[in-house]
Design a protein that fits this description.
InterPro entries: His_Pase_clade-2, His_PPase_superfam, Histidine_acid_phosphatase. This is Acid phosphatase. It holds the Pfam family His_Phos_2. It comes from Cladophialophora chaetospira. The protein is an alpha/beta fold. It has one domain: Rossmann fold, CATH 3.40.50. The protein is built from 16 helices and eleven strands. The strands form two sheets. Strands 1, 2, 5, 6, 7, 8, 9, 10 and 11 form a nine-stranded mixed beta sheet that branches. A two-stranded antiparallel ribbon has the order 3-4. α1 crosses α2, α8 crosses α9 and α10 packs across α11.
Length: 482
């Protein structure tokens, strides 16, 4: 996604100065990584810096005592774990990105705050200058997505895979495949150590671009295509991936975006029904879900740049806002609550902040909570039974025995679902249906790794009880083609 072309005009109707932010949901892409075509992919030092910078920005926006848009009641220095939920699939790049982001969101608090006095008077100092431990929950939707070269490779949804394959049979695809044959033939000398000559075509548009983009950022010892050719490679990769991620006449192709939509509505609904007990939800995922959501929410009507693959560390943000009085004894009703959507392309910072965009082609922002729920409910997938039906899966976890009598009930149902038929919630178990099944040994191994190396606790839950604007200039030169 080329951030330099994004619309920067603010929404004239937006008046945010008198608002109170009740809660937020952030969906963030990972930072810079190694190439998909040379697995296993890993987060690079640059990627760690990018995602930490984004986390630090959202601290300055929502968390810090002098935050620009403070979330009501959110602890500013020492994290209160009941207020925040962070999650990522079982994926090295995404989980490492989650850890880096959280380090920026709640940094070490120093010796004064980072200490505890025991009953016998002993003062215990927190290691690493008051380093804070934030659990990162495991979701299996999108497991190992950064090692999957194909966009639908980790969804496990049969109908979504068939729909994406339909794009590869379409006249649009075949026309572009033929028209770009000579162009990709000219790119072969740059990728011949990884791709065969018959593989260097529009069919592998994204992985070819990804390989050369990683080389452009990290490898100074090899020759690379011209800037004009890089622009063409990126444009073709954007076209290819959006075609696989979304089709208006086949919404199941965007199944990942449908799941994200349900997770967002359930989490925000939990903030409302809990009257602010859990106020900040953060999920880390791949660009596939972002593209799918862009199509489903008709964000392409707000800017044609939403057809493009978002850069590393990009983020989508949904804010719950109100102009009503909020206090310890007074919480707004649903009628007084609205939703603002923001997007930022690439690393977010104080000099490159998220931009607000109108959802669902309405041209308006914010949207009343009831309208947001009703519109989202038209395409969200929030229960295991809904997913099995939509995906056409009938065996394994979608067998009648596995579904059971209560499988059709929604998770996190509220009276505000607008009668859409989709209640907007999805449990950890449902996410597990969609992702690849991960063995207990792998999960335990990852837990041990993060405990020993990152100092974090890895928490897996069976159900999701609580629970991503654009910057015109990337924060580093490396991101301009990321």
């Amino acid at each position: 996604m080329r951030s330099s072309t994004f619309l920067l005009a603010s929404l004239a109707s937006s008046t945010v100065s008198a608002e109170t932010v009740l809660g937020a949901y952030i969906f963030s892409r990972h930072g810079d990584r190694t190439a998909k075509s040379t697995p296993p992919t890993v987060l690079t030092d640059l990627g760690y810096q990018e995602i930490f910078t984004s986390g630090s920005y959202y601290r300055s926006r929502y968390v810090a005592s002098d935050a620009s848009r403070p979330i009501h009641g959110l602890a500013s220095d020492i994290v209160k774990l009941s207020q925040i939920t962070a999650s990522a699939p079982v994926d090295n790049v995404l989980q490492a990105s989650g850890i880096g982001f959280l380090q920026g969101l709640y940094p070490p608090v120093g010796e004064t705050l980072g200490s505890q006095t025991l009953r016998n008077g002993t003062v215990v100092q927190t290691p690493l200058n008051g380093f804070q431990l934030l659990p990162l929950q495991v979701v299996q939707n999108g497991a190992n997505s950064e090692n999957a070269a194909w966009l639908q490779g980790s969804t496990n949804c049969a109908n979504a895979q068939v729909s994406s394959n339909n794009y590869l049979q379409s006249s649009q695809y075949n026309k572009t495949l033929a028209a770009t044959s000579d162009f990709y033939a000219g790119m072969y000398p740059y990728v011949e150590r990884t791709f065969a000559q018959n593989q260097t075509t529009f069919k592998n548009a994204y992985t070819i671009f990804d390989l050369l983009n990683v080389a452009d950022i990290h490898n100074s010892s090899i020759s690379l295509p011209s800037d004009a050719d890089f622009f063409q490679l990126r444009t073709l990769a954007d076209q290819h991936e959006f075609g696989l991620a979304y089709n208006e006449s086949e919404p199941i192709r965007a199944v990942t975006g449908s799941i994200i939509a349900a997770e967002v509505t359930q989490a925000l609904n939990g903030t409302i029904t809990g009257k602010g007990k859990n106020v900040l939800n953060i999920q880390f995922g791949a660009y596939a879900g972002m593209l799918s959501y862009f199509g489903l929410a008709n964000l392409t009507a707000a800017s044609t740049d939403f057809f493009g693959v978002p850069d590393y560390a990009s983020s989508l943000v949904w804010e719950l806002v109100t102009n009503a009085t909020v206090s310890n004894t007074s919480y707004p009703t649903e009628e007084d609550i609205s939703v603002r959507f923001y997007f930022h392309n690439g690393t977010t910072s104080n000099i490159s902040e998220p931009i607000e965009f109108p959802l669902f082609g309405t041209g308006r922002s914010p949207l009343p909570w009831s309208e947001f729920i009703a519109s989202t409910g038209k395409f969200s997938i929030g229960t295991q039974a809904q997913w099995c039906t939509a995906c056409g899966n009938s065996t394994g976890v979608c067998s009648p025995t596995a579904l059971g009598d209560g499988s059709s009930s929604s998770v996190g149902t509220s009276s505000s679902d607008g009668g859409s038929g989709h209640h907007g919630g999805i449990s950890k178990a449902v996410a597990g249906v969609i992702g690849a099944m991960v063995t207990l040994a792998v999960i335990l191994g990852l837990e041990l790794l993060f405990f020993l190396v990152g100092g974090f606790r890895l928490v897996s839950k069976k159900r999701l009880a609580r629970n991503t604007g654009n910057g015109s200039v990337p924060s580093t030169a490396a991101e301009t083609k990321a």
